[in-house]
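S.,

Sequence below, as promised.
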Amino acid sequence: MLEWLEITPELTLVATATRAYLHVPRKFGADPFREPMHGGGSAETTHWLLEAAIAAAGRAFVGQPHTPVAAAAPDAGSQGMVSAANWSYRLTGYYHTTHATRRLLPIIARRFAALGRQPLALWAERKIAEEAGHDELALRDLSELGYRAEGLVRAFVPPRAAAWVALFEQLAAADDPAGCVGYAHALERLALLRGPAEIAAIERGLPAGVNATRCLRVHSSLGGDAQHVRTNVSTTAALDADARRAIVKACYLTARIYFDPSLDDDFRSPGLEAKVLAFREQTRPLPNFSSTQTSRTHDNPNAIR
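The prediction came back faster than expected:
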């Protein structure tokens, strides 16, 4: 069995049960992949087609500077130590992407149900339960770092997070929102690139005793994304060819945002670190704003997974 998807007129992804490859369409003569993919899928071929979509997105930016190598969401990062202010800025990106998921998934679930797409409606309902409270994790991490979290996320939106949210909104509003599965799959598959070494590097840059990597831990190889990836693949494989094409294309577009160097973490831009630090000082909690109040606001037991 084969599955394939034309990314551009010059590039087609082809997947077998054991591997995937990039096929350059023939300029002359018959080309078996010139027609849109048809027929059924399988867990193996769908897995490799989605893997190929992410690999092709990375290849699109080879040779360009600052291509991220270990950033699942929402901004590029390395395993080198980062400052607490830098991490706070990146956490605002986590908030925007996770909050978009919380905001849009119920709409997507209702649309799938209205379209009679029961397997996709079930996927969305399950995803709502899996992602519950994740935006609160980002806010809680920011509160631990001394910020009025809700104010900080209103003030800062990293460019990569903004691009992902815009794409997600576009996919959710499409006539058939099946592409939302591909969006989720790309972010969850890329999250598996983040592991204990990166988490430890970030924690070395934080003040002693501060626990501000909850959100990262959930969206890393330490969280539940490995199982989510398997569910995304099995759900996609059971769909018709049109839906599978939409999902794989959305996966590719989502991964392109991940790899796009023009969307790199702009924390290095002049004055941004100073603005983040100034925001913390200007909005430092007042003496009568107790830490226990903050704790009660964000200590939803369902928010920590």
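The domain at 3-299 is CATH 1.20.910.10 (Heme Oxygenase; Chain A).

Coffee later?
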